[in-house]
């Protein structure tokens, strides 16, 4: 599938957020896009939200050849199809979706810690994430992964990218609670994360868009 002539992704200035998988997919495939990053709660965001031009009054949105589209997972799969990272074979695509949706379940638990302001409650949610949900979902994914090279099949798919972006977000958004030894228990997951992280375009993106200091 040939990429459109113009893609602009509008999202919050939020490394590790919902637009990251789409960014990384397009970057790795060498597909040009413009990134418009807005500070949440800023006058710019309030003006955009009140304009009623966003499909669901939320971000991210992608403006593709002048038309807006939304929903982070829909944009991620679209980027994957452009990049050739989303399998055409239905069963192979099912395997990819199985992994990405398991990671979504993990993120739903972790999100309670991401946004909690009280340190004690945040620590409680982080413990729930890493002691209960992490072994459940990452352990399950470890069993599903077909090799240390690729999550599904014999090339990069959205499953590889989403595995990396999920671990990257957990590591940086819950920095005080993350332990690098966590992934040692899951060697295939760890290898896939290192492979995506080692991509020069990915490294350049995060160098330009660093995580803020987080608990």
Automatic annotation (TrEMBL):
- Single GO biological process annotation from the record: glutathione metabolic process
**Domain annotation GST N-terminal: ranges:** 6-87
Q: Which InterPro entries match?
A: Glutathione-S-Trfase_C-like, Glutathione-S-Trfase_C_sf, Glutathione_S-Trfase, Glutathione_S-Trfase_N, GST_C, GST_superfamily, Thioredoxin-like_sf
Molecular functions (GO terms): glutathione transferase activity
Show the CDD domains listed in the entry.
GST_C_Sigma_like
Q: Where are the transmembrane segments?
A: none
Q: Which residues form the signal peptide?
A: none
Domain named GST C-terminal is located at 89-215
Instruction: Please report the name of this protein according to its UniProt entry.
Output: Glutathione S-transferase
Q: What is the lineage of its organism?
A: Eukaryota, Sar, Rhizaria, Endomyxa, Phytomyxea
């Amino acid at each position: 599938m040939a990429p459109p002539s113009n893609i602009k992704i509008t999202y919050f200035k939020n490394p590790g957020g919902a637009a990251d998988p789409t960014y990384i997919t397009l970057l790795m495939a060498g597909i040009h896009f413009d990134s418009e990053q807005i500070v949440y709660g800023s006058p710019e965001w309030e003006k955009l939200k009140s304009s009623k031009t966003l499909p669901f009054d939320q971000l991210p949105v992608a403006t593709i050849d002048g038309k807006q589209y939304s929903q982070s997972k829909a944009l991620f799969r679209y980027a994957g199809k452009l990049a050739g990272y989303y399998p055409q074979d239905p069963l192979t695509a099912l395997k990819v979706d199985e992994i990405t949706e398991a990671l979504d379940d993990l993120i739903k638990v972790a999100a309670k810690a991401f946004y909690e302001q009280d340190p004690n409650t945040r620590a409680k949610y982080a413990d729930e994430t890493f002691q209960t949900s992490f072994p459940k979902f990452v352990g399950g994914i470890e069993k599903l992964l077909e090799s240390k090279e690729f999550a599904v099949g014999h090339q990069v798919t959205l499953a590889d990218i989403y595995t990396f972006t999920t671990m990257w977000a957990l590591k940086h958004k819950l920095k005080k609670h993350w332990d690098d030894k966590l992934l040692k228990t899951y060697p295939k997951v760890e290898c896939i994360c290192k492979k995506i992280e080692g991509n020069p375009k990915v490294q350049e993106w995060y160098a330009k868009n660093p995580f803020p200091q987080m608990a």
